[in-house]
Amino acid sequence: MPEALYIRRLAVLGVGLIGGSLARALRRADACGHIVGCGRRREHLQRAVALGVIDEGVEDPARAVQGADMVVLAVPLGAMAGILARIAPQLAADAVVTDAGSAKAAVIEAARRALGPHFRRFVPGHPIAGTEHSGVEASFAELFQGHRVILTPVPETEREATARVAALWRACGAQVVEMDAARHDRLLAATSHLPHLLAYTLVDSLAAMDDRADLFQYAAGGFRDFTRIASSDPVMWRDICLANREAILAMLDRYTHALQALRAAVAAGDGDALLELFARAKAARDQAVQEGGAAPASPEGS
Amino acid sequence: MPEALYIRRLAVLGVGLIGGSLARALRRADACGHIVGCGRRREHLQRAVALGVIDEGVEDPARAVQGADMVVLAVPLGAMAGILARIAPQLAADAVVTDAGSAKAAVIEAARRALGPHFRRFVPGHPIAGTEHSGVEASFAELFQGHRVILTPVPETEREATARVAALWRACGAQVVEMDAARHDRLLAATSHLPHLLAYTLVDSLAAMDDRADLFQYAAGGFRDFTRIASSDPVMWRDICLANREAILAMLDRYTHALQALRAAVAAGDGDALLELFARAKAARDQAVQEGGAAPASPEGS
Lengths: 302, 302
Known about the structure:
Helix content of chain A: 40-55%
Order of helices and strands of chain A: EHEHEHEHEHEEEHEHHHHHH
Oligomer: homodimer
CATH architecture of the largest domain in chain A: 3-Layer(aba) Sandwich
Strand content of chain A: 5-15%
Number of strands of chain A: 9
Strand order of the largest sheet of chain A: 3-2-1-4-5-6
Structural class of chain A: alpha/beta
CATH superfamily of the largest domain in chain A: NAD(P)-binding Rossmann-like Domain
């Protein structure tokens, strides 16, 4: 590591795909000492200890963060506010707190309300990585390798805290970028939240049809890839919809408008308009992939 | 081969991904003698000969089918009617004619009009296989291995002709099923045509935004998979929209309706409705993949 990151005691709240992979990656990078994992289910924590992902499992978030110099919230967005309120009184003075939520403005507001003076040491973050699988069993140390992590510090955020969180993600092999939360939320609504909602809606539309068995039987590889993201965790996506509502609605409206234009071209049998649209989209997609933007390996972001 | 298929002289009209892969697969299976490829561009045919995909390249369809006992049309749907009219007077009496078009009712009508008495030996077909790449360079003998080919014979179609086309596709490693054209067109509109249109529309919506460079840069793997099918051949997809218009419009309307319901749930912050929808879609998708229906290897169908 270029930066001298060492985490004495790491508290990972939520030991699922993201939290588990983070713990594995930091361990592998020799970037931390003791790792405390926190979750609501004892069996789950025991499994995480047995897998060597965490050193110790604790069910109470307030107890989990005691003495930790780095606290990472990797829980669904809907659980953030409650957990922030629980841990606030127990945070060590020097503790840096960060999160991995897929919508940032909502988490920042929750943290501002819950953390009081400690809000200065809260660094909002979002690793653009994941798979459609969930749980600690699906976690792996390489999940963040080569992927982007977006940090969205606010003016109050201490630079030293942001630097520590950036170093944490770099130790996991990620590429760290900073932007403001509103821009993050808009970007993610367009490139991740909207595609997930479109895929969920497609699968649900087909599943509601009389010949659903037939439909799924004849669906080909393109359909499989297209709908892979509809296997993602439903709770996580409910929470994303609630937390990033405005940006998502704006994208849904923009999309519906475009779909209506396409429908009109199909209905009119307007081959020229259709060809122009498809050629333009193909060119944009091919260019995006060529430039590497949309091309990290199979894991998806949320 | 269980069936004693031997094609004396095969005419492949359109030596692209599908036509080229078919020629390669039949050659590898020792299922045919001379292969004549037909296409509009001489350089393209020369390349196909140099690659060993065809024995001979001919630019004129009427000449290409002379003496052939099996004629396969692997051209965009929009070119079918014209080519059928061109070849009709030159077909040998015993020649079986088939196609690989992604919409069947429209091709059947075109064949009925063009072929006259030879229509009895026309077997409408559709291999559910493909990739987002086009052209003879992208063709490979294994493309159809383990994939379904749907044949949609009509009452007039001679059983012996259908049996020969079924044997042809089995020799390529495909699994052959029969159904009526209307059912094929509805199934494909749902599982292939609609997903492609949704992906094209997504990419085009994003490309039209001010921060398109940013958007594509931060798009993750899920987006890449989701939009891969938007790299498919624009001409082919224009033709599919024109040829399968009614079924596609019905699916677009069904989808738009579902998307409006999702929008309403997001706007209302209705977490229960969102969770129910996502959980239902995830269950349907996971079940479909488990049952293997949506899970042939990476190539896509159209």
